[in-house]
Amino acid sequence: MSMKKFSHAERIGSGNANPSGTAAELVPPRASLEQLETAARDCEACDLWKLATQTVFGEGLPRARVMLVGEQPGDQEDRAGRPFVGPAGRLLDLALGRAEIDRTQVYLTNIVKHFKWSPAERGKRRIHKKPRYSEIQACRPWLDAELAIVKPDVLVCLGASAAQSLLGREFRVSQQRGQLVESALAPHVIATVHPSSILRAQDQDSRHLQMEAFINDLKKVAQLLKASIKKKRAA
Ligand code: URA
Ligand code: SF4
Known about the structure:
The protein is of the alpha/beta class. It has one domain (about 20-235): 3-Layer(aba) Sandwich (Uracil-DNA Glycosylase, subunit E). The protein contains 9 helices and 7 strands; from the N terminus they run ααβααβββαβααββαα. It has helices at about 10-15, 35-40, 75-80, 85-100, 135-150, 160-165, 175, 195-200, 205-235; strands at about 65-70, 105-110, 115-120, 125-130, 155-160, 180, 190. The structure holds uracil and iron/sulfur cluster (SF4). Iron/sulfur cluster (SF4) binds near residues 45, 46 and 55.
C-alpha cells in the first residue's frame, strides 16, 4: 500500500490538534528523552516545521549536569538533525574545551526546535530568521520536558533569545552576562552571549576579545559544576 503524499497546501490545512496553541498536547507523560525526541519529530504546533527539514531535538545524557540552551537550529543543524554541529557549534566546542567542561556533562538544546529561515536574495543560502514570541511559546513545552528529565545543576542561556525567553523580557545579556540569576528553572542559572555573535565580530581583535569573554563565562559554569559535584559527594 502506498502512503499518501501530502501537498504543501494540504499540510498547511492539516496539523496536529493543539488547542493550547503550543506543543503541550504532544508531550508524552513520563517519557524518556528518547521518547520525547521521537514525539517531537511530528510536532506541528507552530508553522516552523513546514520550512525545515526535520525537528532538531536536544542532545546529551539524561544525567548531564549542565544544560546549554541556544535559540534554534541553524542551516547545518537542520540538515544533520543535531544541535550545534555547524560553525557556531564548533566555536562552542572550542570554548567548552578551553573552560575544561567535558562534553559528556553537557546537554545541548534550543528554545525552538525547527530552523527558521528565508532564502538569500541571491544564491541558495538559507538566512537565519529570528523566531517570534509565539513560536518560542509554542515550542516551550519541549524544553520544559527536557528540563524536567535532565534537572541540570547549571542552566546556561546562550544569547538574548534564550535568556529573554527563560529569564524574562527585561533581561539584558550585555549587562548581566556571567552573573548568577535567581530562577526556579535550576539551582544555578547564568546567561552569556550566543557563539554565533562571536562569528559575526568585525575584526580579528574583537573576535579574540569576545571569545576570551565567552570562555570566561564558561569557566564560571565549570566552577559551579565543580562546586555542585563536591556538594553531592559530601551529602
Ligand atoms: N545556533 C543555535 O542557537 N543552536 C544551534 O543548535 C545551532 C546554532
Ligand atoms: Fe513544534 Fe517547536 Fe517545531 Fe514549532 S518549532 S513545529 S513548536 S517543534
